[in-house]
Amino acid sequence: MNQKIFDKDTMVSLWSDNYECWFCEGNRPDSIHHIIPRSDTFCSNSPLNSAPMCNYPCHLNNHGLITTEKWKAKLLQKTIRYLLKQNYALTQQDLEFYLKHQKLYEQHLDS
Predict the structure, then answer these.
(1) Which of 6, 28, 46, 64 has its CA 20 to 30 A from that of 40?
(2) Long-range contacts of 34-41 (CB under 8 A, 24+ apart)
(3) pTM of the entire structure?
């Protein structure tokens, strides 16, 4: 399996109760965005690397912005909070992903 593609069944089960776009906070997300882009060496199909978004205009129109370190940190932190609140059990792959990006998870963000 390609390690850079999300498993559809896993994503549906994890995100089916979420109605918020992580970018605009609107209630119409229609895609799952890789927070660490697929072109990055450290991209992962871990759910920790996923963020629900409106594909257009939020994801596609703001791709340059959402790949900045500040936005990666914001999206990663929001995703892990959401998943843990849903009682998601972290896998070994998730832990490895977290450790690779620990600085982004620990970055202080101004609201």
Answers:
(1) 28
(2) 34/4, 34/6, 35/66, 35/72, 35/75, 35/76, 35/79, 36/72, 36/101, 37/67, 38/4
(3) 0.89
